Structure formats: structure tokens, C-alpha cells
Amino acid sequence: MTVQCNKCGEYFTVLREGIMVLQDDGYDVTYFVCPHCKEKYLICIFDKKMHELLERRRQLEQILRIARAKKFRAEAIRRYVKEYEKVKADQKALADELKPIGEEIVKRSGKGEDEDGKEHNSDQSG
Ligand SMILES: [Zn+2]
């Protein structure tokens, strides 16, 4: 996927290697970095609840596939569809909630990178 950086205006291709995942405070944050100016862009953020919703959504998709193939009663299918729609809506609401948190984490992760340097291995034991 080719994107234009909002900050420096350069176009670049986001490669799989360029996609980073960091874990912070129970969140899994996926982002990519502009190779020109190092601006970070949030792709998605997951917390425990989001993982659960995703898992449930996958289950329901599978159930629905089977339910339709095996011609379950319409009423039963409707119930699953209803739950599926609810999970989808919950996911969207949660994603909106998590987005600013993710952006904050991504922003924070870049700070002090130059001054503090990366964590270096100490020879001291303990
Ligand atoms: Zn840039």
C-alpha cells in the first residue's frame, strides 16, 4: 500500500517489514513509520476486549456459514445475525474509543529516542 505522509508529504510504500507492533499497558498497537521523516502512523490498537470481540466475530461467521449451509431454522440464523451485528457495532465503538489511546502510545513511543538512546545491556548483575 502506498501512502502519502501527512507531515513531510513524501509518498512511500508500507511494507510488511515496516509495520511495527508494540505492547504497552495491555494494548497491542500496530503502526508504521514514514521512512523520510520518521512520523509514526497508527494502524490499529487492540486490547483484551477487542481480541475477545474479534474472536467472537470469527466464531459467529463460522456458525453462520454452517447454519446457512445446513439450513438452520430462520429464527436461529436471525439470532446469530443479530449477535454478529452487535459484535460488529461493539467493535466499531471500541475502535473509536481505543484510537486516541493508540495514537498517544505511538506518539509516546517515539519520544526521547535520540537523547536517551535505546536500552543497553548492563554488565552489572542483579
Ligand atoms: Zn514523512
How would you describe this structure to a colleague?
The chain is an alpha+beta fold and about 130 residues long. Helices cover about 50% and strands about 20% of the residues. The protein has a three-stranded antiparallel beta sheet. It has a two-stranded antiparallel ribbon with strand order 1-2. Strand 4 and strand 5 form a beta hairpin. Helix 1 (about 50-70) runs antiparallel to helix 2 (about 75-110). It is elongated. It binds zinc ion. Zinc ion (ZN) binds near residues 7 and 10. Zinc ion binds near residues 5, 10, 37 and 39.
What is the number of E strands?
A: 5
Order of helices and strands: EEEEEHHH
Major sheet characteristics: 3 strands, antiparallel
Cofactors, ions and other ligands in the entry: zinc ion
Unreliable segments of 5+ consecutive residues: none
| Helix coverage percent | 40-55%
Average pLDDT figure: 89
How far is it from the N-terminal to the C-terminal residue, by CA?
A: 46 Å
Q: How many helix segments? A: 3
How many domains? The number is: 1
Radius of gyration: 20 Å
Strand content: 15-25%
Helical/strand content category: alpha+beta
